[in-house]
Write a structure and sequence with these properties.
- The chain starts with a helix and ends in a 7-residue tail after the last helix.
- The longest helix has 19 residues.
- The radius of gyration is 23 Å and the shape is globular.
- The protein has a five-stranded parallel beta sheet, sandwiched between helices. The chain has a five-stranded mixed beta sheet with strand order 2-3-18-14-15, sandwiched between helices. It has a four-stranded parallel beta sheet with strand order 11-10-12-13, with helices on both faces.
- It is of the alpha/beta class.
- It binds iron/sulfur cluster.
- The site of iron/sulfur cluster has 15 residues, from helix 4, helix 7 and helix 13.
- Catalyzes the conversion of 1-hydroxy-2-methyl-2-(E)-butenyl 4-diphosphate (HMBPP) into a mixture of isopentenyl diphosphate (IPP) and dimethylallyl diphosphate (DMAPP). Acts in the terminal step of the DOXP/MEP pathway for isoprenoid precursor biosynthesis.
- Its cofactor is [4Fe-4S] cluster.
- InterPro entries: LytB/IspH.
Length: 402
């Protein structure tokens, strides 16, 4: 399938929308009341610090809703305004945030049902409106919806589309796209659907394994078993690693994406010599600014003397999990919660430790004077951060005076 030509044709179609519908003013009120916070604004203006009683809050200097997510949410709300009577669907959670997704459900925006791990599009009919989320949709899904005669509202973030364009460039030169990401993550599923040959590597350790294979060869069966589900059909590590290009899921750890890019560059240079490097290797910077800013701000915050850290964001949000990783690496007691409601009391907090299931931690809030670091992922509204801060003040007996 010529994915580039398909996207070009789709974008010209009258049933396809990738800009708002001019209802910005109507949705501005909902966006403001549901997602923005005057307390957070106040903290931002006060050098990202708020002290009440024996609690000092230190906010990361960049956190929360990125413009790509804000744009996607506003577009979804505008879609309801623009199509007041049509059935409206979303192919996936628009972003990884439970309150935003609940809000959409309340507006009668339905999620495509998933049966036995597969999306069931059978209930969607001609004329239905289907919203594609901020992290995009696979080209096969877009084609299916187009064939069904749906109206498509595409909120895919331009940073994500930039990665798709990169993958198209790899394909044009018959390169294999090495995608740093999680093969099951919707964004990576979408990105790999535009590739011809691809291999998804999760982390530096996997990248090292692949690079070692490039240089020294290895056990082909073991390679294919290790990357089962993470490569294109018919992928052959003995043939398909001669020409490679780097791509990434936009929310991965920036430092790791860079390390992986450098590792492949050195490996290819070692294998084919410096003068052949550009012939065998392609890399473009596709790390999203928002992810980068949030990670840089977190790096600054975790250097401070903190008694604990609260990281707020959806449990399946990749960029939030990476923020949590950075905190854990510094040995800080860090709690990843997806909603302020997870803070049950001063003794109990329901949180998700890295790589584990949700559990309850006891005695999480220390006695006496404390400094609490707070950050949130790109899909978390300021309102959720405000509510978490208010809860901490309440539990420590420090009322908030705004
Ligand atoms: S994190 Fe970056 S790529 Fe993802 S929606 Fe936000 S701006 Fe876009």
């Amino acid at each position: 399938m010529d994915t580039k030509a398909f996207r070009r044709t789709l974008q010209k179609s009258e049933s396809y929308h990738r800009k708002g519908f001019g209802h910005e003013e109507e949705v501005a009120g909902v966006m403001q009341s549901a997602y923005q916070s005057s307390l957070i604004q106040q903290i931002r203006e006060n050098n990202y610090t708020l002290q009440r009683g024996n609690v000092t809050i230190r906010l990361a200097e960049a956190f929360g809703f990125c413009w790509g997510v804000e744009r996607a949410v506003a577009m979804a709300y505008e879609t309801r305004q623009h199509f007041p009577t049509e059935r409206i669907w979303i192919t996936n959670e628009i972003i990884h945030n439970p309150s935003v997704n609940q809000h959409l459900l309340d507006m009668k925006v339905e999620f495509i049902p998933v049966i036995d791990g597969e999306k069931d599009f059978s209930g969607i009919g001609i004329g239905d409106v289907v919203i594609l989320p901020a992290f995009g949709a696979s080209v096969q899904e877009m084609q299916l919806l187009n064939d069904k005669g749906c109206k498509i509202v595409d909120t895919t973030c331009p940073w994500v589309s930039k990665v798709w364009n990169t993958v198209e460039k790899h394909k044009k030169k018959s390169y294999t796209s090495i995608i740093h990401g999680k093969y099951k993550h919707e964004e990576t599923v979408a990105t790999s659907s535009f590739a011809d040959k691809y291999l998804v590597v999760l982390n530096l350790a996997q990248a090292e394994y692949v690079c070692n294979y490039i240089l020294n060869g290895g056990n082909r069966e073991e390679f294919l078993a290790k990357f089962k589900h993470a490569h294109s059909e018919g992928f052959d590590p003995d043939k398909d690693l001669e020409y490679v290009g780097i791509a990434n899921q936009t929310t991965m750890l920036k430092s790791e994406t860079e390390q992986i890019g450098k590792l492949f560059e050195h490996t290819i240079m070692q294998k084919y010599g410096p003068d052949q490097l550009t012939e065998h290797f392609q890399s473009f910077n596709t790390i999203c600014d928002a992810t980068q800013e949030r990670q840089d701000a977190m790096l600054g915050l975790v250097e401070e003397k903190l008694d604990l850290m609260i990281v707020i964001g959806g449990f399946n949000s990749s960029n939030t999990t990476h923020l949590q990783e950075m905190s854990i690496e510094r040995g800080i007691s860090s709690y990843h919660i997806d909603s302020p409601d997870r803070i049950i009391s001063g003794d109990r907090i329901e949180h998700k430790p890295l790589g584990k299931d949700i559990e309850i931690a006891e005695n999480w809030l220390p006695e006496g004077k404390i400094v609490v670091g707070i950050t949130s992922g790109a899909s978390t509204p300021d309102k959720a951060v405000e509510d978490a801060i208010e809860k901490i003040f309440e539990l420590k007996g420090s009322a908030v005076a705004v």
